[in-house]
Amino acid sequence: MNVSTAIQERRAEKMFDPAFTISEQQVTDLLVKAMLSPTAFNIQNWRIVNVKDPALRQRIREVAWNQDKVTDATLLFVLCADLNAWAKEPARYWAGAPQMYQDMLIPAIDAYYRDKPQVQRDEAMRSCGLLAMSIMLLAQEQGWHSCPIDGFDFDAVGKLINLPDDHVVSLMIAVGSRAQESFPRTGKLSLAEVLVENSF
Ligand SMILES: Cc1cc2nc3c(=O)[nH]c(=O)nc-3n(C[C@H](O)[C@H](O)[C@H](O)COP(=O)(O)O)c2cc1C
């Protein structure tokens, strides 16, 4: 499947087939590929919680507007980010790069994020957003379906997954096989309303 088809066919599916299975190897393949998505300074601040435990899924569902997909989708990923990834051995993010780049970028990482909580948080959301789209398109390529989810209590989900203090939850992604056809896309804005040439 080419990228255009994956983008056109991907929908935020509502109902998933609870009997559908995906192998561990397929999950690994999908995540390893999705992790090739870009992050600023290559800090790879995303952290992926693969929620396998059905009881934990049920508890998450209870704080996620009781959305069926939380328990019924084959996979549920809670996409989180480490707000301090920039400070954790940043040299490893550029290991193997030409020395000139290492000398320039490693100090630049520090200068960009240190003492800037808003920038750290914004980066968390950017990275997880890009990762999320890759996961959904890779799922589509496999003939699977997906749904991004932010209809949940973030603090409650954080507690349920033992989120470390210096991490944030960005969104969840359900992946599996849809249990019903999605209705046609609705309410899409025209390009003219969205596109701004040069400046607002
Ligand atoms: C960050 C994000 C959070 C979303 N949260 C939910 C959700 O909690 N439940 C749900 O059913 N759909 C959720 N959606 C799906 C959107 O409603 C859907 O993407 C939008 O209506 C466009 O439909 P389409 O993706 O099928 O084209 C979410 C989408 C995004 C990007």
Automatic annotation (TrEMBL):
Gene3D superfamilies: NADH Oxidase (3.40.109.10)
Coiled coil, from the record: none
Pfam families assigned: Nitroreductase
Domain Nitroreductase: 7-176
Keyword Oxidoreductase in record: yes
Key words, A-Z: Oxidoreductase
Domain of life: Bacteria
UniProt KW Oxidoreductase keyword: yes
Family: Belongs to the nitroreductase family.
Name of the featured protein: NAD(P)H nitroreductase
Gene source species: Geotalea uraniireducens
Gene that this polypeptide is encoded by: drgA
